[in-house]
Write a structure and sequence with these properties.
This protein is an alpha/beta fold and 274 residues long. It has 11 helices and 9 strands. The chain has a single domain, classed as Aldolase class I (TIM Barrel, Alpha-Beta Barrel), CATH 3.20.20. The radius of gyration is 17 Å and the shape is globular.
Length: 274
C-alpha cells in the first residue's frame, strides 16, 4: 500500500497539520442533536473553531461503547425522528460548507441495514471521507473494506491498551485515514486527566504502521489536548464537545473547539517520530 493511499482523506489532513509542527484536532458531534438543523449548526461551529477532521456520530439505539453524555444526546436525536438518511443529509451539508474531511462514527448494524455497498456509494457521492467503526474488527469487515476501497473511503479501526502486538499489526494494516487509539479502557467520556496508557499504546501502534495515529477517549480541554501532541498525530475529542453543545449551544461548541485547537498548536512536535 502506498503512503498516499494509506493516508486517505483524513490522514492527509492530519499529516498537513503535522507538517505544520502540530497535532491535528479530530472533533466529534452526533448528527441530529439537539435537532437536525441544530446539529448541522453545531458541526459548522467545529469547523469555524479550527477542527482539522470532523467525526459525525450516527445515533444508534444500543450504543454500548458510549458514555452517558453521548448516549443521552443520541437518544434525544433518535427520539426526534433521526434516520440514517438524515445523517447523510447532514454530511452532505457539512461537506458543502468546508473542505474539512467528514468521517462518520457508527455502529455496524445501521450500515448493514442500509446496505454496505449502497451506503459506501451514497456516502462517497455526497462528499463523505470514511467511517470509524468501533464495533467492527478488520477480520470480520471484508465486505466494508471492499466497499470502502472501491469508493475511496477511509477505514478507521480501533486499538486499545489490551490489544496484542499481533492484533495491532493486523488492525493497522487494514486502516486508511488514521488508527484510532483508545487511550482508556471502557466507554467514552471526558475525564479529569488522560490515561497513562495512551503514550505506550501509541508507541506500539507507530512501531507497526506509518498511518497517522489519533488518541481518543478522555480529552476535555486544551491543556489535555496539548499533552497528547507530544506523542500522537491527532487528538480526538467527543464527549466534552457534546457537553459544550448541551450547555452552550453552537457558541459553546466553538469556544471549546478554539481552546482545543489552541492546545494542539501549543507544543512543538519536532521530536515526534512518524
Amino acid at each position: 500500500m502506498s503512503e498516499l493511499v494509506a493516508l486517505g482523506n483524513a490522514g492527509a489532513a492530519i499529516r498537513k497539520a503535522n507538517d505544520e509542527g502540530r497535532a491535528a484536532l479530530v472533533a466529534y458531534l452526533p448528527a441530529g442533536y439537539p435537532t437536525i438543523e441544530g446539529g448541522i449548526d453545531a458541526i459548522k461551529a467545529l469547523v469555524d473553531g479550527g477542527a482539522d477532521v470532523l467525526e459525525i456520530g450516527l445515533p444508534y439505539s444500543d450504543p454500548v461503547m458510549d458514555g452517558v453524555t453521548i448516549q443521552r444526546a443520541t437518544e434525544h436525536a433518535l427520539a426526534g425522528g433521526l434516520r440514517t438518511r438524515d445523517v447523510l443529509s447532514t454530511v452532505e451539508k457539512i461537506a458543502a460548507y468546508s473542505d474539512v474531511p467528514v468521517l462518520v462514527m457508527t455502529y455496524w448494524n445501521p450500515i448493514e441495514r442500509y446496505g454496505v455497498d449502497r451506503f459506501a456509494a451514497d456516502f462517497a457521492g455526497i462528499g463523505g471521507a470514511g467511517l470509524i467503526t468501533p464495533d467492527l474488527i478488520p477480520d470480520e469487515g471484508a465486505e466494508w473494506i471492499a466497499a470502502a476501497d472501491k469508493n475511496d473511503l477511509d477505514k478507521v479501526f480501533l486499538v486499545s491498551p489490551s490489544s496484542t502486538d499481533q492484533r495491532i499489526a493486523m488492525t493497522t494494516a487494514a486502516c486508511r485515514g488514521f488508527v484510532y487509539a483508545t487511550a482508556v479502557m471502557g466507554v467514552t467520556g471526558a475525564r479529569d486527566k488522560p490515561s497513562d496508557l495512551a503514550a505506550p499504546l501509541v508507541a506500539r501502534v507507530k512501531a507497526a504502521t506509518g498511518v497517522p495515529v489519533g488518541v481518543g477517549l478522555g480529552i476535555s480541554n486544551g491543556d489535555q489536548a496539548a499533552g497528547v501532541t507530544a506523542f500522537a498525530d491527532a487528538a480526538i475529542v467527543g464527549a466534552a464537545l457534546v457537553k459544550a453543545l448541551t450547555d452552550g449551544g453552537p457558541a459553546g461548541v466553538r469556544t471549546l473547539t478554539e481552546n482545543l485547537a489552541e492546545g494542539v498548536r501549543r507544543e512543538p512536535r519536532s521530536t515526534v517520530e512518524r
